[in-house]
Write a structure and sequence with these properties.
six-stranded antiparallel sheet, 15% strand, alpha+beta, three-stranded antiparallel sheet
Length: 323
């Protein structure tokens, strides 16, 4: 999935979009056991990469371009690796150099399937680690991505798409947030009906504190900073000014982005977040956090418009709208 999905629409449509987006990716990661499938992710060039077996008796270096990356789920690969799927990196036939020891041919699969029919697996003679694969005609040479010293070289097609989409849309929401804060002047910043939903400074404080809460490592003991948390009834003069708020927006945006990057697609899809009421999939939790952020940023933008400062454009480039 490489198509760009714009997720800034508010309401249930956002949840539906991301749910569809995530569901489209899951088959590549959760293909059922026994299904034969190889997923090529295109060409990639890289400087020399290296790797080794489990015990270190076999070490290799690849001098040249990585020709292709794929994940195979044929039965022969599953048996050879003892895993549901095996990530492979194809390299030029003359680029694989063993710098220590040598891989040997593994015994043939008693009931070969796909890769077992077309070639031979290569393993370490000492520890048995699956290091590579060679086609019978010698025209295709591959190494297992898991043996690479830097396995991040391997990136399966679609991997990172959920993370990238969330990072992009959180980034856009924080951009719009900062834009709305800049549009207001210092007087309008602290004015409004005695409600946190009507005073821009109070609304901004709510957005920042809750956004940070959603990515807190320990939500049970999260430090809400009581003096700041009483934003709904604190005297407006005690609330952060626009300059301080803009600094906080930058800080929290970086924290959210770092959290998403750290979790990655695997952490988002497979991880969970426990709240007082339920245990939620982490991707659902972050979708809710995004929707909450977008909702209140739109609220702040509406406050700008009501005060005659114009609403912040959704896409960062459009002209101010009257609708």
């Amino acid at each position: 999935m490489t198509a760009s999905h714009h997720l800034m629409a508010l309401g249930p449509a956002l949840v539906c979009l991301v749910a569809i987006y995530t569901a489209a990716l899951l088959p590549t990661a959760l293909t059922t056991l026994g299904q034969s499938q190889s997923d090529a992710s295109g060409e990639q060039t890289a400087s020399a990469v290296s790797g080794r077996c489990l015990c270190g008796a076999v070490r290799y270096r690849v001098d040249g371009e990585i020709l292709e990356q794929s994940t195979c789920r044929c039965r022969s690969c599953q048996r050879a690796a003892g895993a549901v799927s095996v990530p492979w990196v194809r390299v030029p036939t003359d680029a694989l150099v063993f710098t220590q020891g040598h891989a040997v041919d593994a015994p043939a699969d008693a009931q070969p399937d796909l890769c077992g029919e077309r070639g031979v697996f290569r393993v370490c003679a000492d520890c048995g680690s699956l290091v590579g694969w060679r086609s019978h005609d010698g025209e295709v040479i591959e190494v297992t991505a898991g043996t690479l010293d830097d396995p991040s070289v391997f990136r399966e097609e679609g991997e990172g798409a959920v993370t990238d989409a969330l990072r992009r849309e959180f980034g856009e929401a924080f951009r719009m947030f900062a834009d709305a804060v800049r549009r207001l002047d210092d007087q309008a910043w602290r004015q409004g009906e005695p409600s946190w939903t009507e005073v821009p400074a109070r609304t901004a404080m709510h957005i920042l504190l809750t956004a940070e809460y959603y990515v807190a490592e320990d939500r049970e003991s999260y430090d809400w900073e009581p003096d700041r948390w009483q934003y709904w009834d604190s005297p407006v003069e005690k609330l952060p000014d626009r300059a301080a708020t803009l600094n906080d927006i930058e800080r929290v945006a970086k924290r959210v982005d770092a959290y998403l990057t750290w979790q990655g697609d695997a952490g988002l899809r497979l991880g969970t977040v426990e709240t007082k009421s339920a245990v939620r999939p982490r991707v659902a939790w972050m979708i809710y956090a995004l929707r909450h952020l977008q909702h209140h940023v739109a609220q702040l933008s509406a406050q700008c418009k009501a005060r005659g400062f114009g609403a912040a454009p959704w896409d960062g480039t459009a002209e101010d709208r009257e609708d």
